[in-house]
Amino acid sequence: MLLRATLCLTLICSALSIAQAQNQASSQNSSDSTGTDKDSRHSNSRDLLGSPENEMLIRQKIKADEKVHQENVERAREAAQLSVEIRDAFLNAKAFGRTEEKKLERLEKITRKIRSEAGGSDGDETLDDPPSQIEPALARLAEVSDKLRKRVEKTPRQVVSADVIERANEVLEIIRVIHTFTR
Fold first, then answer.
1. Which of 20, 40, 80, 160 has its CA 20 to 30 Å from the CA of residue 4?
2. Alpha-carbon gap, residue 60 to 66, rounded angstroms
3. Burial class (CB within 10 angstroms; exposed 0-12, middle 13-18, buried 19+) of 55
4. Which tens digit of pLDDT belongs to each residue from 9-29?
5. CA–CA distance, 77 with 80 (Å, rounded to integer)
6. Which pTM value belongs to this model?
7. Is residue 141 a contact partner of residue 171, using CB atoms and an 8 Å limit?
8. What phi and psi values does residue 91 have, to the nearest 5 degrees?
9. CA-based Rg of the chain, rounded to a whole angstrom?
10. Predicted confidence (pLDDT) per residue in 56-73, tens digit
11. Selected residue with higher pLDDT from 124 and 57
């Protein structure tokens, strides 16, 4: 019986001490929220929302990423335009001149940059059905370059597109085939 009484008394004392400790902690929190410690409250809200410096850095990064994406879209448009110009020049002159060679080199450089921005790298891709003459190769180049342009325009900046990489590789392979005809 004495053991039970001691045990009950111990439980009651521990419950009272816990209640008193909680009461003291809540009174400290209420005094903080009334304005005695504004700096800690300000830092707590800053932690939740993010510091202005971090927000500015994040906004700058987003703008830079958007700019890079827009430049990539412009590259794809230029690539499609160059491939059409090369095809049309060949159809009109029935010859592949130095101007077309320069445009083809520019197209290759732009396409490599598009592929790099899309997350691709050099690969040993080969065409399934390579063109056997220069005229169909140039027509296919214009067609695939236009598909690449459309894909780049539709792809959001945060996405790594396997289709863009595949189209860029296909354009580069067609350029390689065209180089074999012009040498």
1. 20
2. 10
3. exposed
4. 676 766 666 767 666 655 555
5. 5
6. 0.68
7. yes
8. -65, -35
9. 34
10. 998 999 999 899 899 999
11. 57
